[in-house]
Amino acid sequence: MTINNTSGDYAGDGRFGIVAARFNRLVTDRLVEGAVDTLVRHGVEPDEIDCVWVPGAFEIPLVARKMAETSRYSAVMTLGAVIRGATPHFDYVSGHCAGGIARLAGECDVPVIFGVLTTDTVDQAIERAGGKAGNKGSDAALAALEMSSVLGKIQGQS
Ligand code: INI
Fold this sequence. Notes:
Largest sheet: 4 strands, parallel
Structural class: alpha/beta
Helix content: 40-55%
Oligomer: single chain
Radius of gyration: 15 Å
Bound molecules: 5-nitro-6-ribityl-amino-2,4(1H,3H)-pyrimidinedione
CATH superfamily: Lumazine/riboflavin synthase
CATH architecture: 3-Layer(aba) Sandwich
């Protein structure tokens, strides 16, 4: 048996969770829009999407874990934007956030998707939030759809 969903033909079944950071909201609003738009275009009803806002990327892992542990979601997407400043703060926030989400992605029973931008500049972040480098929120939604479909197939649900 081969499971390789390259066609992008996902059922979009179930509820989908988003955890989004309010920090750098100019960017993260665009990421959320991209994610919701992509989910809906793949057949997810808007009222099957729950978006929980948290203060910043540092807070994402805790809320993503709580959402994943409810077993209510087919996948949980994490969306944020950590932009490098002049101090080591960036490294602490991005390191905790990425490390926490990576642990969840390996430990949780549902897919936890990493859609947190880490960039040197605001312009780089904007480019990746619906600008010339695409929309990483939309990419996160595609990964969520594919992963929930793959897990459903492995578990024999579809
Ligand atoms: N949070 C972000 O999401 N992005 C950032 O760029 C950022 N910077 O640069 O400071 C940031 N800081 C806030 C942090 O995530 C926490 O919300 C805060 O430290 C409270 O725990």
